[in-house]
Amino acid sequence: MKRIMKNVFARRFTAIFMAAVLVAGMLTAGLIPAQKAQAAAISSSSFLKANGKQLRNNYGNGDVVTLRGTNAGGYLLQEFWMCPTSYSTGTYTVNCEMDIYKTLTSRFGEAKMRDLIKVYQDNYWTTQDFDNCQALGINCIRLPMWFMNFVDFNGNYISNAFDRIDWFLQEAGKRGIYVILDMHGAPGSQNGSDHSGIDGGNSKVTASQFFFGNNANSNQQKYYDLWYKIAQRYKDNPVVAGYDLLNEPYCTYRYNSGYSDDYLHSLLWGIYNNAYNVIRSVDTNHVVIMEATWNPSDLPNPSDYNWSNVMYEYHNYLYDDYDNAAGKQITNMQDKLSLISSKNYNVPSYMGEFSYFNSVSAWQQGLQLLNDAGINWTTWTYKVTGSNNNWGLYNQNVSATNVATDSEASIRSKWAQVGSSTINSNLVNGIKSYFTANPSPSTIPTGDCYIVANANSKVVCADNTGNDPLIANRNANGGAWETFNIVANGDGTYSFLSRANNKYVCAVIDESSQLLARSATISTWEKFYITKTANGAYNIKAYANNLYVMADLNNNGVLKAVTATPSTWESFNILK
């Protein structure tokens, strides 16, 4: 869905602070300090495999690893809305990467085209960018690729087809960063959109010749062959976190193509199964990643295909509430996580692309959602054009190249500058800790507990057998009225079952957001986020209104979900 934004919205909104590296004492704008913490290099014991709903190192038998990072979008596959290349019309129409390749070949020949593309890619991503990611605490980069990175116009593999991927994996691995190899653009295009390398304009279904048309079968065979070669080359490489089979299949026309859900599902899942089997024929260890466009219902139960060691991927964008003024950025992600939870597939889940746009607070809340749910994630994206552009960790302000009209020397000169960028430090200040924060679920107590408000050191009670609002007024835990069974809901939220009356605690939004043990079942008002603070206490936030629970000492310690920013009155100890 970011793709809708690219052509329609991206030129209208340029005001978020999405950033990458915050460290004191910057040497120069866009550079990280010379002294920084070093992550352990990826080694054979780092090899990831799926183990139930988690990724674990040591081939699935070691520690849980939660991937948190970004995408290297615009590097091996340009999208003009976020890259320093101009759209053009006239003698040459240039709207996508394939147009770049064809235009440069027509003007200068295929060999010179490849040489110019090399200038762009040599400079777009350098060791400095890896250093920047490492300094931020990123442990995973999703690397979008397209088939023309590997083959010529006749489908023959170029002599140095894998050199750049080899280098990327080597440099990432040195810094303790995993890499997801992402097939962003398949032969023939899987969605007819510019981010696949081929732009079909208003005829995206027709342009999706990976799925439809006379060339679909041959394009799929090229796709399987490419995955075979990738898996064969990297089957023993522990830096590779997984093989992302296909980016955003169908994309913008998923629900309006004229084809039935059953047909589109059958077509895609059959291709996924074929690619899975091709990869497994040479690589039995790496995680295979399948993408849903857009919801868990667009992926099968993995047991139906006997898939193992797989991870399911989702993307999430909402443009209606760009500044999160109505809180829709957060509720949209909550809804996505609820769908993932309700499907309950026994595989790790991965949010491969997302943005929370302008609001720093929305970024903080949204990343906490993902961390609380134990979801692996990579933001879209690392670097984009523009000043404080809402899509990128880093911003580029360099001259745009017009491949249709610029001279060869000018193209070479401009593309030699595409590595220049500066950080969006405002958002980095807000989100840097979320890359490295320990996953919350393992630190949240569940089962029967009692809760102490740090505002007055009193125990929380469901008074009058739960008929009165929760109140922090007891000197000690005396029994059922002070006991709450904390239940993990599986979507990053928790619910409190009062032992006073065996009813769930509700944030009664239409009654001053007071907390009351009154509900027989769990719905929106009975869900809460619990996060551990730096001093070991907990903050509790209502799912229904995104506000923190406080012990209101101006009202005898009654609990209400009414605070936007937590402090002492919103701090609780949860004890067994």
Automatic annotation (TrEMBL):
Domain Glycoside hydrolase family: 123-383
Protein name: Glycoside hydrolase family 5 domain-containing protein
One GO MF term: beta-glucosidase activity
Iron as UniProt keyword: no
Any Pfam family: Cellulase
Species of origin: Anaerocolumna chitinilytica
Any single GO BP term: glucan catabolic process
Annotated keywords: Glycosidase, Hydrolase, Signal
Signal peptide: 1-29
Species classification: Bacteria, Bacillati, Bacillota, Clostridia, Lachnospirales
Superkingdom, taxonomy of origin: Bacteria
Recorded family membership: Belongs to the glycosyl hydrolase 5 (cellulase A) family.
GO cellular component: cell surface; extracellular region
